[in-house]
# Entry
Amino acid sequence: MSRDHWGILGLAVFGTVIMLGLVLSPRDRHGQHPHVGLFENARSSTELLAPTTVDEQGFAVEADLAAEIMESELSNREHLEAFLDTGWEEIDAEPHDPRVVSLDPALLGTRESELRQQLRTTRVSEKYLGNAATIAIEAREHRTRTAAINSIGHRRVGEGGEVLLEIFETLPNERERSQVLGHIRSESLTSPESDWLVTQLHGATVSESLKKQISMKLVLTGLVEHRGDEAFLPELLERVPDEWQSTIESQVAKMNRRARSDAAL
# Structure
């Protein structure tokens, strides 16, 4: 696979399955992965994983998302170039309402649309993280709850993670819980986030479809952490419920098939 291809992948971010095609590529005659040099920063590469969606078998579906992101990036670049060409002009404007800026949940009853707009246009600061979490749980409209989840999830890795776990455990909506899972990042199978994911697999209140998403997230974490080596699998299987062991083995096998297919291209 060429460096240009890897550069495009990094810019578009984000196709987890495509990335794993590199991670899982066949070893050379010395037993090393041909692309092992690309994974000196494997831990930080988990920051580039796009939120995961799930198909009917519970596998990551991100190719369309990567294409949309690339298209959006190109569009944003065009708008930026046009802006720099024309410059800007200062105008008088209404001062921002500090209650909206601080994401005051008390405004949900009368000014929810303003809170939603604020969430959509900013990445929530640590100072207002608790307010954003309250909105994610208590907002009347689904699109407002979604905006709050995304605003929290778009913070840097390690920031807001505990809040997302609490939101997942509180929300009743299946689609929104799946969205929260997509934003939960784990750098290692021994991290607190991975421990929490394993706990959810044992949980009686988590649906089958969400558990499939959780198991795939654990598989992806292990493959990235170990640079495509499956040595993590036996230990992971010991931690998960017996009824999920075969699913995880199937998910790893499917990733291997995709990797071999990509390597053959």
